[in-house]
Amino acid sequence: MMNLNFLFPVALIAAGYASSAMAGDKDPAAICAEAEERYTELFGHPSAEEPGVTVVTMYKYNFCPAQITVPVGTTVRWVNVDKRTSHSVLVKNSGQPESDRAFPEESIEFTFLVPGPQDYLCGPHWETQNMIGMVTVTPE
Asked: Which of 46, 85, 106, 123 could disulfide-link to 102, CB 3.0 to 4.6 Å?
């Protein structure tokens, strides 16, 4: 498992993006349900049971869930549960580089330190697949 810890000290990109249902004819809720099933198969427990982090899965060109709300200081772990595709996470205008690619069963971690909406995207898939998500960070 690849864990890259970055701190994001500024609010970024305009809010309002959501993940796309570009992965065939399924809706995002169905895709995210499949992603959670795959996560449980791979790791032996639901993603909500991961201690100390909030998990977002990456599956079929979607972030699941596409929008989350967390308190300041929360570490978000993006976990690739696809079978063949790699993904990255980039928070634009943060001054931080795009993460390395996370291949199947690998993860990327970021700790959010500043309140506000913070959009992120998958570097290789945001333009062609609209793979974009948002973290709303609330004050402590």
From this structure: 106
Q: What is the pTM of this model?
A: 0.81
What is the predicted pLDDT for the residue at 65? 97
9 — phi, psi (to 5°)? -90, 0
From CA 64, how far away is CA 73, in angstroms rounded?
21
Query: Confidence band (pLDDT; 50, 70, 90) for 18?
Result: very low
CA–CA gap between residue 21 and residue 31 (Å, rounded): 8
| Polymer length of the chain | 140
Tokens of 104: 């199947």
pLDDT at residue number 94: 66
Which residues lie below 8 Å from residue 29, measured CB to CB, with a gap of 6+?
Answer: none
DSSP string, 70-116: EETTPEEEEEE--SS--B--B-TTSSPPPPPPBPTT-EEEEEE-S-E
